[in-house]
Amino acid sequence: MPKPTPAVKILVVDDDPQICDFMETFLSSDGFQVTSKSDPTGIEDEVRDGGYHLVVLDLMMPKLDGIETLQRIRKVDSDLAVVIFTGYPSLDSAVQAMKLDAVDYLRKPFNPEEFRSVLDRVMRKKGLLRNPEESLHRYIGERIRGARKEQDLTLKQVARRTGLSVSLLSQIERAESSASIGSLYRIAVALDVKVGELFGEF
Asked: What rounded mean pLDDT belongs to the chain?
């Protein structure tokens, strides 16, 4: 029996308590262990003692802005993954964030699926994948959906070509069900792609 993977710990820093509550609910439902802070002062001790894998950091805060907070984080931990998010994006702040090795810079309000893909990329880069098989299902689902959309095909049309149900195809695309090799082969033939292309560079 495989050993359970420890939860990925995320720190959310935002002066808006409603954003903190939303992020805690959103990320906890995805299986992350989440702590939120509405006051960025004392961030060094929090990062030093918290054992976090990722910090999600608001850019505009009254006591310390996101860039100053990120500078303090870097004095304590040069490798910690940090995602900046802001309702007031600017080229200058984006450049400063990247110079301090932020892994991404997102505009608020963000699309939850876009944020999930950022988290997947960050965890892959940092070697923190909790469930590689789950990530593979999601990746294949995205590849199938992308190929289908490129050809302007509906799920119903792909179902007719493959003999698979619309419900199953939808579940595969949303990574709610794993596809058998036989099903993947049928989908690949229906979309006129090689089976290997559905795995891409995973």
From this structure: 86
